[in-house]
């Protein structure tokens, strides 16, 4: 998988001055567009679209300083419809406009070319299982929050802190499926996975898709007011578990799943909610975590 990703990066590098089709990039990587975007974002720490933008502006910056072509010609070559739009993008990355950079020979920002390598550290093995699940339902309180790549997500923290503990207890009584208890569910993420784009965050539980009159159905009397139902169709899930210092162990689990497990196994992510079950020690310093990701086998 990493060899394919590096071939895709090489393809991008030779076409920075031409339109790029994500479907074509996914074909070169022998995977789906969804998995390519998710995998790239996890490994590179930025969305694919952001990497391409920054590489284009890096190369364009060198051409601006070379002073061999007009700024408009450079802007058009790298996909900008006007000098104004190019100047805005140029300034957002380099901190100076292209005209001023050319006049003063300003120092510019450079986005290095990326390459991916698999590094194996230590001798511990990742704990995971792959399970086929029938359809189920997420029931919980939902908020639309921004995507944060690193550090705490204050919007989620504030949302969860604002939930009445009694409401969480009522939700937890509805749990009748793995992973049991209160879980964090992320759904409807923007395909670009760019910083600041929004997603649906659920503080909820996993339940059976029972008939309305079943005792644990989502709209049974025990469901708290304001609860939202998210139906999830049947499919395959990869389940990863870890234990260790909080929140480092959870952050490292996410990193290792994309840096090590996906490149070494014949699976790719598919659209669907991502589920995290976390249990903290009484003092909050240690965590047991279980991460559920929707997957499908790679098609070759």
Q: Your description of this structure?
A:
Strands 1, 2, 3, 4, 5, 6, 7, 8 and 9 form a 9-stranded antiparallel sheet that branches. The chain has helices at residues 2-13, 22-28, 33-44, 48-66, 71-77, 83-94, 98-104, 154-161, 165-172, 248-264, and strands at residues 127-133, 136-146, 183-187, 198-207, 228-232, 235-245, 267-269, 274-280, 286-297. It is elongated and about 70 Å long. It has 10 helices and 9 strands. With 300 residues, the chain is an alpha+beta fold.
Give a brief rundown of this model.
The protein is α+β, with helices and mostly antiparallel strands and 300 residues long.
Largest sheet: 9 strands, antiparallel
Count of helical segments? 10
Shape category: elongated
Q: What is the subunit arrangement here?
A: single chain
Q: Report the helical percentage.
A: 25-40%
Total beta strands: 9
- What fraction strand? 15-25%
Uncertain regions: pLDDT < 50 for 5+ in a row?
211-221
Radius of gyration using CA atoms only: 23 Å
- Give helix and strand order, one letter per element, not per position: HHHHHHHEEHHEEEEHEEE
Structural class given helices, strands, pairing?
Answer: alpha+beta
Mean pLDDT over all positions: 88
Alpha carbon gap, first and last residue: 12 Å
